[in-house]
Amino acid sequence: MTTTLPFFLSKPKSIHLPVHLVSEKNFDSWVKKQAAALKNAITQSGFGPKGKQTLILQDKNGTVEKIYTAVSTPVDIYDLSKTVTDIKKYFSSDFLKNASFELQAAGTLTESEMERAHIGWGLTCYVFDRYKNSSATFPALVIAKDSDKKRIEAFVQAVHMIRDLVNTPANDFGPEELEKAAQDFSKKHKTTFSVIRDKELLKQNFPMIYNVGKASPRRPRLIDLRWGNEKHPKVTLVGKGVCFDTGGLDIKPSEFMITMKKDMGGAAHVLALAHLVITQKLPINLRVLIPTVENSISGEAYRASDVLPTRKGLTVEIGNTDAEGRLILSDALTLACEEKPELIIDFATLTGAARVALGYDLPALFTNNDDLGDEIKKLSATPDVCDPVWPLPLWKPYRKDMDSNIADISSTGKGKAGATTAALYLNEFIEGNIDWVHMDVFSWSQTAKPGRPQGGADTGMRAIFGYLEKRYGKTKKKA
Q1: Exposed/middle/buried for 351, CB within 10 Å: 0-12, 13-18, 19+?
Q2: Can you say how many angstroms the Cα of residue 24 is from the centroid of all Cα atoms in its chain?
Q3: Contact 402/421 with Cβ under 8 angstroms?
Q4: Would you say 329 and 237 are in contact if contact means Cβ atoms under 8 Å apart?
Q5: pLDDT at 476 (0 to 100)
Q6: Is 82 a catalytic residue?
Q7: What number is the average pLDDT over the span 266-280?
Q8: What dotted CATH number matches 8-142?
């Protein structure tokens, strides 16, 4: 997992250049105050008030002396992504190795806007080069003195952590490696750590986690992290950790299996979210549960039509072995409820139906508390968070579609609303008086976008942190 951020510096290098941020709102008034030479450069280059444009100026000797970039009003977290890309293209790698940059507000920008600009710079300076010889050199940024360096670094580290974990192929990242990553996380943050492995899962009554993972030689397990003061409100995060999903005996077509290394994206999200909670010292009693398996195929594999027990005592008729995430989550959610936390949040790459409804970038939110869902949705779209989520209905009338003739419940049911059906299944394992949020996320960028390369992606993690920070910690100044 990414811990160092070499593109953030404490001191300038021998060549140090300012990057002036010009807001869309103040653009015209700013231009009027500039000297004739700069006005001419603005006119000739077409540099305008809309965000994501860059103007690089040279002195009479051909040496770059100033860089200007237009940013939105309010500043978007990805406004600086194109600037970083433009700088990387303009300068040679040798120049960038000896150069540093610093953001300066050409006009009035709030503390939050400057923070987002720095975070956006860091999100763009990402490359997954574990398996290739890479000479990628990103522009190094000296974080402005008035900015919260630790907070900026924490947000960038959290997103890079998700990308690294999800991008690592399954041959190098199975349940054992996910356990190691969680254990390293625990050591770094001084949390308590425990794990239940293989047949010990049966002995300690986690039958679903065991049955889903028993077909693989990479044995199933349940990871458990704890942090914080026991006197603080209890919040539990649960992350789906399916390190590779073949679909089981209901095997996936090859075009859908190719990205299934990302099926542990829920686990990556809750570790990244925990990183933010811990580094920002939110006053909560945090628990992180990660059921992790490989959904594989062998003579030991569970079958469609099997009836399996759960930790809660409900029996489940298996409708499809490719709907495995909800099965392992059910045992973990039952365990979470046994402590009666005031809030449970799970992240899972759960259903293709959520992607049909909302596309790849917009995660689906389900909750048993509509007011809570509305608040998260509203907060997710604010400039400070800029990580939109969208509530889908936990529509109780569809529960009857999940009735089984031979078990307490079917894992898939017969209805068409697949994302809602999955959420209703999970809801069976939540105690009625505990607030619960279920995030059905994709954890993947299908195509590269500014600041968001193709591959592992954060979807909804910053939105949930924004809510936790508002509910339990000090809120940042609004833009």
Answers
A1: buried
A2: 29
A3: yes
A4: no
A5: 46
A6: no
A7: 98
A8: 3.40.220.10
Distance CA 33, CA 42 (A): 13
**pLDDT for res 51:** 74
Cα–Cα separations (whole angstroms), residue 155 to 132, 189, 429: 26, 15, 32
Beta strands in 209-311 (DSSP E): 221-227, 234-239, 241-245, 285-295, 307-309
CA dist., res. 411 & res. 455, Å (int)? 29
pLDDT one-digit tens code per residue, 38-95: 999 999 999 998 878 899 999 989 999 999 999 999 999 999 999 999 999 999 999 9
Are 22 and 107 spatial neighbours (Cβ–Cβ below 8 Å)?
yes
- Kindly compute the dihedral angle of the four CA atoms of residues 246, 249, 251, 257, in this order, to the nearest 10 degrees: 0
Catalytic residue among 326, 355, 462, 471: 326
CA–CA distance, 185 with 275 (Å, rounded to integer): 8
Interval 203-248: pLDDT, tens: 999 999 999 999 999 999 999 999 999 999 999 999 999 999 999 9
Domain boundaries, the chain: 8-142, 157-472
Same fold: 8-142 with 157-472: no
**Active-site residue (options: 151, 226, 252, 377):** 252
pLDDT digits (tens, 9 = 90+) for 452-476: 999 999 999 999 999 999 999 864 4
180 is catalytic: no
Q: Which fold has domain 157-472?
A: Aminopeptidase (3.40.630)
